[in-house]
Specification:
- This protein has nine helices and four strands.
- The protein is of the alpha+beta class and about 290 residues long.
- It has two domains: about 5-55 and about 160-290, no CATH class; about 60-150, Alpha-Beta Plaits, CATH 3.30.70.3040.
- Strands 2-3-1-4 form a four-stranded antiparallel β-sheet.
- Helix 2 packs across helix 8, helix 2 (about 20-55) crosses helix 9 (about 260-290) and helix 6 (about 155-195) packs across helix 9 (about 260-290).
- The two termini are about 25 Å apart.
């Protein structure tokens, strides 16, 4: 396509937005409301997903070492665990360190055990994929010099099932909301284009190709998407900034931490803008298609 023709299409799309001001306002409003709902829902789901990831990453395996194991055998066990496929991190904790941890929780009541420490050495293990905690635990349990392997059997599996179900429901809801948005916006744009049915018919009768007729409407749809995305981007950015400043300090160091504003807001705004353009173009394409048969 020649540059002059493309420039004409852009000029035509701009003029059309101005000539059909009320219909343009209706279409932009539909895009704005829909993208605002989608954006808010994405913010909620992404932060819930962050919480789910933090919960998963907090899951660890505690390997209690057999009392009969010598220092060399404990070191060999630690090395063997670290070389196990799927293991991300291994941390050794002596029985003295374990006692110190208990004393921090119970206070001076355990001072008597300093002379005769009844605790065993322990090795803490984290999996690369938290969902693989159970099978890795079972494999480690088969190693020599392991007295007991603790990872919250039963509870961990239920937790992962709940988190996976929540993620799947969130994806389904987002997809459903996007499909509903595309349907509503395409119908709104279709009303806009229906008012110009005569214009399309005249262009077809004088020999204009389908692409020549379609392209200005697709560009116009893209502009509608851009204009409709601006308000949601501004509202969500300001709202998230204020909420983050309010919530983040209160949950500092806790399991739940909202997503950092950077790069999350840049990614979210890019997604909203892209969805606006995509929905606008798709809606225009679907709407203009039925009027090209003259």
């Amino acid at each position: 396509m020649k540059f002059r023709t493309l420039r004409r299409h852009f000029s035509s799309s701009f003029k059309s937005l101005g000539r059909n001001a009320w219909m343009t306002f209706a279409s932009v409003s539909a895009v704005t409301v829909t993208l605002l709902l989608v954006g808010v829902f994405i913010v909620i789901m992404m932060n819930l997903n962050q919480l789910a990831d933090n919960i998963e990453n907090d899951v660890e395996i505690k390997v209690i070492v057999d009392l009969a194991a010598s220092e060399k055998e404990v070191a060999e066990l630690e090395k063997k665990i670290s070389e196990t496929p799927g293991v991300l991190e291994v941390e050794y904790s002596s029985n003295t360190q374990e006692l110190d941890k208990m004393m921090k929780g119970f206070g001076d009541e355990l001072d008597l055990y300093k002379q005769d420490n009844p605790l065993r050495h322990a090795i803490f293990v984290k999996a690369e994929d938290p969902q693989q905690t159970a099978p890795i635990s079972k494999e480690i349990d088969s190693f020599d010099y392991t007295y007991e392997v603790i990872y919250g059997e039963g509870k961990v599996e239920k937790l992962f099932n709940v988190l996976n179900t929540g993620r799947n429901i969130g994806i389904i809801l987002i997809v459903g909301l996007l499909l509903t948005a595309m349907f509503l916006i395409s119908n709104t744009i279709r009303i806009t284009i229906a008012a110009r049915q005569t214009e399309i018919g005249i262009m077809k009768l004088v020999g204009a190709t389908n692409n020549f007729v379609r392209i200005p409407f697709l560009i116009e749809g893209a502009w509608l998407g851009v204009l409709g995305a601006i308000t949601p981007m501004v509202i969500i950015t300001l709202a998230y900034y204020n909420l983050y400043e309010l919530v983040a300090p209160k949950f500092a160091g806790e399991l739940f931490q909202p997503l950092e504003m950077t790069p999350f807001l840049y990614q979210l705004n890019g997604l909203i803008l892209g969805l606006g353009v995509l929905i606008g173009i798709w809606g225009s394409f679907i709407a203009v298609r039925r009027f090209l048969k003259v």
